[in-house]
Hints:
This protein has 4 helices and 10 strands, in the order αββββαββααββββ. It has helices at 7-18, 61-68, 98-106, 109-113, and strands at 24-30, 36-42, 45-46, 52-57, 71-78, 83-94, 145-150, 154-159, 166-172, 179-185. Strands 1, 2, 3, 4, 5, 6, 7, 8, 9 and 10 form a 10-stranded antiparallel beta sheet that branches. The structure holds flavin mononucleotide. Flavin mononucleotide is lined by residues 24, 37, 39-42, 54-57, 60-62, 120-121.
Amino acid sequence: xxxxxxxxxxxxxxDAEFARAPRIAAMATSDRVGGxxxxxxxxxxxxxxxxxxxxxxxxxxxxxxxxxRPDASISFWLQDLRRQYxxxxxxxxxxxGPERLALWRGLSDAARALFTWPEPGTxxxxxxxxxxxxxxxxxxxxxxxxxxxxRPLFVERLDLKPxxxxxxxxxxxxxxxxxxxxxxxxx
Length: 187
Ligand SMILES: Cc1cc2nc3c(=O)[nH]c(=O)nc-3n(C[C@H](O)[C@H](O)[C@H](O)COP(=O)(O)O)c2cc1C
């Protein structure tokens, strides 16, 4: 498999910007009537084929959106580099398998505990015992623990450092690993 032409620069930009800090990105999905919804997520892994892995609650609204329309748009703003990335593509829901287990084991105890809390978005539960603060790595992931794999088919990088700004695009076709780009467009 040939790696996507944008991947090396993207990975080294994330390393430079975040080092060991969480790689926080905005993720947009479409609701059932085509309205847009955005929220922040932690991108846990960038795979050799350019896929992005994140962990989420299977009971959350975004998963409901993705069941109906399995596409997302991910955007990073890299403040120090003054660079924005947008990555759009279909999303797989991984409810089992080795990637899911590896991500579960790699979470902090506090992050694992979130998946045992009451259903997100429902009326606030009064019982404080319903919100444990820590869950160990030696546990099996609960059914609420879902991994999303975003497979970008369109990537755009906007660089605000040069004058004029630089805006580059790469595209792939669904089912292939062939990319075109970079194509420079007006910023
Ligand atoms: C800094 C930050 C990181 C977050 N990381 C995640 C994450 O990795 N996965 C996730 O599902 N939600 C994460 N959230 C919570 C989401 O932004 C959102 O509130 C939650 O997933 C419910 O979204 P939904 O109702 O659109 O599904 C994070 C929030 C913040 C502020």
